[in-house]
Amino acid sequence: MQRRGHLVVAVVASVALVLQFWLVWQGHAVLDDVDPPGRGERVLRFFGYFTILSNLLVAGASWSIAASSDPLTSRLGRVLYVDAVVGITVTGIVHWVLLRPLLSLDGADWWADKLLHVAVPVLAVAAWLVVGPRGRVRAADVGWAVVPPVVWLGYTLARGAVTGFYPYPFLNADNHGYPTVLATCVGVAALFLALAFGASRLDRVLARRVSAPRS
């Protein structure tokens, strides 16, 4: 059941990523109609979106779990799985609250957007809640899971300061100023940490229920 559930998530996430990459390669929805970037820059920007990174983590973790009868035995695997589940949850929440009103898409662009921001988050969280794996994540893993998002944020702000491109409007320090952007980042980081610790605690509760003897 666990492996089949994560296989579904892996396939949907992979299809979403391939579709979005193909659309970017073809020049769809580049978010800059005045001076659209070349193909190389479009591809570089594609991999700079947290949405893409979180979907890549979900796809990788789900393929790994689907292929293994004993997943998440290494700390790196557990940390990346926490990042996958929490990151894709943050992706869905931020998209719904901050980004959805800004988008006007149709056709294949609309489908790619909904797969990446709605279908994969819902399926990934549902798979984690329903089929696990259970009882593998430790408190120390949650602490290490914060490192990749912080590295991504530092890279994004540094690259934006040099190129003027920010993947999300609320990170645009040129428009909003660094105090506002950093305050937003702190809020998102707090959400990430709260979700990560909450998920770790819920994981332990669910693990005890699974292992508890039935009367």
Automatic annotation (TrEMBL):
TM region(s), chain numbering: 7-26, 46-67, 79-98, 110-131, 143-166, 178-199
InterPro entries assigned to the protein according to its UniProt record, in alphabetical order: Pr6Pr-like (IPR049713)
The entry's keywords: Membrane, Transmembrane, Transmembrane helix
NCBIfam families: Pr6Pr (NF038065)
Protein name (Swiss-Prot/TrEMBL): F420-dependent oxidoreductase
Biological source species: Nocardioides jejuensis
